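@channel sequence for tomorrow's demo:
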Amino acid sequence: MPGLTRRSVLFAVPAAAAAIASPALISRATASTPHQSPIDIHRHGAVVSPHLPALHVHYPHSLDLEIRYESKDQSQPDGCEHRTAEETVLAEIPEGAAWVTLAGVRYNLANFHFHTRSEHRLDGHQFPLEQHWVHLGPNGEKLVIGQFIKTGGHGGTLQDQALATVPEECAEDVHLHAANLAAALPSDLSTFRYDGSLTTSPYSEPVSWLVLNHVREIKASSLAHFQSRFPDGDSRPLQALNGRTVKYRPQH
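structure tokens (generated this afternoon):
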């Protein structure tokens, strides 16, 4: 696809394309691709599947990152002041620096970003925040780990560090030194798994979703700083399950 960067393939269409895409076109695209994300995950409705392959995480203990505001309308006259649900704060990961394996297949971590409030729900509950860890397989397959986040922590996590330093739209990137990605995911890697889509345009399918059952806790001030950038939120509404089966893979 000419003009698409590695980031735009994984995360969204380029800003210029997003600016000219009509709501009618997006609506038709969604209607023709019924396995969309996010969804409401119900614990009692998930099929317990211990036979599914285990998730193996290979994230570094120290990695320098650049945290940036992912703007979709920077070229518009009021783009630096106007917030849209397509925008977020994102850290792009150097290729090959971090990865997961599933059934022997390696998926390189491409970026992580945040949505407020959470896009997925758990038994109808919407969390204050959700983090997405976006991975790319050897043939372009997309695998995203979703992580619910709530307040109650004491700080010091990667999430706290990233959220407390998010830049303004159109501002310079923020450098995060020696970020500990290895500690950013829990030791309990039990996940709800289903086939879905990206949650930003073009909402492309398929995406293999692994949503962690464990909820990360952060400081209230970290959440407040991120939400100050997105007072109206940056999450997509729930999508219909449309006959899909959600499976639960325990991995304590």
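heads up for whoever presents: The first strand starts at residue 40 and ends at 41.
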